[in-house]
Design brief:
- By secondary structure, this protein is of the alpha+beta class.
- Helices cover 40% and strands 19% of the residues.
- The protein is built from seven helices and 14 strands.
- A hairpin with a 2-residue loop joins strand 6 and strand 7.
- Helix 4 runs antiparallel to helix 5 and helix 4 runs parallel beside helix 6.
């Protein structure tokens, strides 16, 4: 009898220890445990299964709570991983907004960190003298054009116009000579050089405005397409804007007459930006890089050689199928390629600017990328012109076409910041 009681007590002790251990492992606070007697000759597990009392309910509850805890633990781990990923992405975004983002165009150029682009680029005295020399040469050429105008229009008004402009040119030369002498005599210093350059360029800008007023008398007598744009200074405020936007295009041809000797790089003859993409269509020669055509941030280098201070006719054709492009200079094919933004149509409803590269829609100009030179007969077609059609344009053939998307007309272009319009007739005034 004692043996039986001893066996039952021992099994009760084990069952109690098992339930205590199970409860303490889950840390459920205060718990109630109920002991059930088990015969000596019966298996403990079988006896437990037979009793569907409070002990079984407690065990079921414990298992359910354990499953819930495990599920919550897994959810927390997933949330921690998501937080780590978001934190890493936020850190990358913050670092890109603080530091230089690098190249903003595939295969294109990198801007200098901290570069001041809110005005003209800094120049040494030698660069300033070279720039002034080019400016005076351009002004004298404009004077010769006005003299030609006076010979073709023998009138007192034309003669007075010529004499007035000649006096202005002579006054300018004296002022420039005085500025140069004062720069040479003064001690070298960045502040002094900057002040002198600003004074000289202010004088030049004022004179450009006067010349523009004088040349207005020619507008009534010249055809709408017989004009050119002049960008004499590398600034971030001198530009022209085409009033008309581009439609959606799956191919195009863009042609123009261009003249420049700017160094380094002649800048940006034109840029077309659309909402969400500032580099939808850009022609640029920046720094020591060759001229590039950019379509939707994709770049192709062009084999143009035009920085000789002479007039050149250039054309670029492109089709979205396989991104095939061609580059013509003076009516001759100079290069071609493919895979330039293939199957990407040129988007509509953008802003077309001449003389500046847009970093934002219609603005964000950078003086280091500004075009310096002269530009005329800027036309765009929504198809690929043939080599014969391009040759006719370069040789001023009477069969030459005008752009069916953008045609060169004085009423279609507005100028800003000192950019000027004056008479130009292709193939008669070239070089």
């Amino acid at each position: 009898m004692r043996t039986m009681i001893s066996g039952v007590s021992w099994k009760l002790f084990l069952l109690t220890f098992f339930l205590l251990d199970l409860g303490s492992s889950q840390d459920f606070g205060q718990a109630r445990f109920i002991c059930t007697s088990v015969p000596a000759n019966m298996d403990m597990c079988a006896a437990t299964m037979q009793n569907s009392g409070p002990a079984e309910d407690l065990k079921t509850t414990v298992l359910q709570l354990r499953e819930t805890v495990l599920q919550q633990k897994e959810t927390i781990m997933n949330q921690k991983e998501t937080i780590r990923e978001l934190t890493a992405k936020l850190s990358r975004c913050e670092s890109q907004s603080i530091t230089d983002p690098g190249e903003t165009r595939t295969g294109s150029r990198r801007k200098e960190t901290g570069k001041n682009t809110m005005g003209d680029v800094s120049r040494t005295p030698a660069d300033t003298l070279n720039q002034l020399s080019q400016t005076l040469q351009s002004l004298k050429q404009r004077l010769e054009n006005l003299e030609q105008f006076s010979r073709n229009n023998n009138s007192a008004q034309a003669n007075n116009l010529k004499d007035l402009l000649q006096n202005k040119i002579e006054d300018l030369e004296k002022q420039v000579l005085s500025r140069v002498n004062s720069m040479e005599e003064s001690k070298p210093g960045q502040k002094n050089e900057t002040e002198q350059r600003v004074k000289v360029e202010s004088t030049l800008t004022s004179l450009h405005h006067r010349i523009s007023d004088l040349e207005k008398g020619q507008k009534e007598n010249r055809p709408a397409d017989k004009f050119q744009l002049t960008f004499l200074l590398r600034t971030n405020y001198m530009y022209a804007k085409v009033k008309k936007s581009l439609p959606e295009m799956y191919s195009f041809t863009v042609c123009m007459w261009i003249k420049s000797s700017a160094s380094p790089g002649l800048g940006t003859p034109f840029s077309y930006a659309v909402p969400g993409q500032a580099n939808e269509l850009v022609l640029i020669e920046w720094g020591d890089n060759p001229m590039e055509i950019i379509i939707n941030d994709k770049v192709a280098k062009l084999p143009f050689v035009i920085k000789d201070g002479k007039w050149h006719h250039i054309c670029i054709t492109w089709t979205t199928r396989d991104g095939v492009w061609e580059a013509f200079q003076d009516g001759v094919l100079r290069g071609n390629g493919e895979n330039l933004a293939p199957y990407h149509p040129i988007k509509p409803q953008g802003v077309l600017v001449l003389g500046q590269e847009q970093d934002t829609l219609g603005g964000g100009f950078d003086a280091t990328q500004a075009f310096v030179g002269e530009l005329a007969n800027f036309n765009i077609w929504d198809r690929k012109l043939s080599s014969g059609e391009i040759y006719n344009l370069a040789t001023c053939n009477s069969k030459a076409l005008v752009g069916n998307v953008i045609s060169w007309a004085e009423s279609n272009v507005d100028v800003y910041g000192g950019a000027t319009k004056w008479t130009f007739e292709a193939c008669r005034q070239i070089n």
